[in-house]
Amino acid sequence: METAPAKTLQKRQVLFxxxxxxxxxxxxxxxxxxxxEETESGSFVANLAKDLGLRVGELATRGARxxxxxxxxxxxxxxxxxxxxxYEKLDREVLCRATDPCILHFQxxxxxxxxxxxxxxxxxDINDHSPEFLEREMLLKIxxxxxxxxxxxxxxxxxxxxxxxxxxNYTISPNSHFHVVTxxxxxxxxxxxLVLDKALDRExxxxxxxxxxxxxxxxxxxxxxxxxxxxxxDINDNAPEFLQSVYEVQIPENSPLxxxxxxxxxxxxxxxxxxKVAYALFQGDEVTQPFVIDETTGEISLKRALDFEATxxxxxxxxxxxxxxxxxxxxxxxxxxxxNDNAPELTMSRLISSIPENSPETVVAVFSVSDPDSGENGxxxxxIHNGLPFFLKPTFKNFYTLVTERPLDREERAEYNIxxxxxxxxxxxxxxxxNITVLVxxxNDNAPxxxxxxxxxxxRENNSPALHIGSVSATDSDAGANAQVTYSLLxxxxxxLPLASLVSINPDNGHLFALTSLDYEALRAFEFRVGxxxxxxxxxxxxxxxxxxxxxANDNAPFVLYPLQNASAPCTELVPRxxxxxxxxxxxxxxxxDAGQNAWLSYQLLKAxxxxxxxxxxxxxxxxxxxxxxxxxxxxxxxxxxxxxNGEPPLSASVTLHVLLVDGFSQPYLPPPEAEAAAAAPxxxxxxxxxxxxxxxxxxxxxxxxxxxxxxxxxxxGAGSAGRCPVPxxxxxxxxxDVSGTGTLSQSYQYExxxxxxxxxxxxxCLKPILPTFPLQDTVREIKENPTVRNSFLFN
Length: 796
Hints:
Elements: H1 4-10, H2 15-26, E1 31-36, E2 44-47, H3 48-52, H4 56-61, E3 65-68, E4 75-78, E5 83-86, H5 92-96, E6 102-110, E7 115-124, E8 132-133, E9 137-143, E10 151-153, E11 157-158, E12 167-172, E13 178-184, E14 190-196, E15 207-216, E16 223-233, E17 241-242, E18 246-252, E19 260-263, E20 266-267, E21 278-281, E22 291-293, E23 299-302, E24 313-321, E25 327-337, E26 345-351, E27 354-356, E28 363-370, E29 380-384, E30 390-396, E31 399-404, E32 415-424, E33 431-441, E34 449-450, E35 454-460, E36 467-471, E37 474-475, E38 485-489, H6 499-502, E39 503-505, E40 511-514, E41 525-534, E42 541-551, E43 559-562, E44 572-576, E45 584-587, E46 589-591, E47 601-608, E48 614-616, E49 622-625, E50 636-645, E51 652-662, H7 673-680, H8 685-716, E52 737-739, E53 749-751, H9 780-785, H10 787-795
């Protein structure tokens, strides 16, 4: 069993507040009504609404009801009229026994706000019980030698009524020997004594039979009678006398059966059988008395368990009778001492099982406590466990309210199991526990929250319509409809973005779907916002950003810009037979509309008239001679170059080149980059002289060759045009093609392939590459689909 200090540390005590509240209540007035007992059920007691100054309708709106200890319904309240009526016929003797006055305490409970009003109903006694003797006949043995004026005690009659309705007087049937005298006892009851008026003579009349009548003070009075039979015996001069006229004793209510209460003792001065004393309960009520006396020893012992709460005092009268019939009487006053054998009782009057969250101070329960024990055993302390957002608030006498300490948050805790403990102050301490469950109902105070503030989704182009591309997810910590989330697309910030035709969202689960096939080359990325709204009232919502990136697919084959494949006549490249290895014949220029490695292009020689004569650089598409040309090499060469991207699977395109080997050409070749680097290196003077001499001789030789070739060409007339690239009338445009790097070329080139001055000489001149002028990747689609744009791109 825990000690009081330990419990004080564990629980919040409300005893001090309760005592203060009780002291305050002691000065307040209570409503008290009075009515006779045995009034028929349904009878009118009072109009509570009028007595309390309340409107009739206010009782109904405030949930008025009557509370009585133990929840036993004795009264009923008509909340429509405010009338207080009897629920059943009330018997004062059953409810209060011998207690006077008989007051029934009840409370009027009002809600919104909580208010408790104390009221009392006093039952007044009516004369509904007649006096009744426990024995039909009393036997008195009186010696004939008894002197006149001798008093003989008689047994009393019982009357359950109180006040003037109980026994007020005793009478005896008319006779010449006795009269009866009525006396007051210490507990307020009246008892009779028989007084001898005339000496008895056994020889004349050995026995008398008298009628003793008990009368109450009711109107009309009620009565009860018994027979007093008197036997006249021979002389016995001394009656037994007790050592004490009153014995006072205390006995705990939990005393075991057969335990000794007290021993009484009487002595008789006579001898023989006249001096032998026998003890007995004077009233002889062994049914109601929980005691028994040993007729020889005078020891009074317990024959039935005691209950302090039922009866606290007993007055037991003991008679000592000798062998001659004389008797003496004493009173044993027995006080039952209370022990802490009753645990406190808790009566719940009002209970709210569910409280909305975020509510201010709210009354959860109203209850009363009681303990039938007395003194310290009947003092009580009510408490709840620490750590709960509730506290006990004393309201009226032993009434308490359980109140929330602060607004509750359902998301923090949705259910509270509260144990109310009522402990008395007795030894040992007894307690009663009452468990209640309080649910916190949800309020829509939390907006949905996305798992991410932004989502990035990838989708490969050329997807099938209605493709699931990803999901967004939001959670709501509320419950029920307040936690049901609906997803939606929000209007995009860019009004030109056709979001409704691009994606859709499942409102129930947040799945996103692409509604149309996406094209990386047309739309590489777009973003929009999605909303999550709950179904509370009012509804709460939140937003998240979704970014959709379109992944490129290898769906575009390389497109050859140069040489043109749709010309009316193929373009022929001229290569002098004196060209050195590495001589730049031409450059294949191609682009790819894809991105990344799908646009990385590589070149390779697929077919050639003379294998090994030409080579193609894999990374830039330059076609160069691989060895020295000889007279045995065919003058017309046909090359097929394959252009392939790096996608998966790879796509490719091929181009056919026509190369014409000629015997003479000014500036016979463009030196490769290595030759240029070597030319840039400084030379010694001897080398310079040799180069100048050799150049002079070569120039004379070449000039002669050119003159010879020019004469031959002039003779052939129009035949010379077949050896030139098909060009428009007039001057050929200065810039033939511009190829910028698209992720696959090492550098940008711009070439002048053909040049004519309109002189008819038919001379061709090959120039070195110069700087690029504009990029091509962003215009690939336009170049592929529109020939006019393509030609303009190439020749302007």
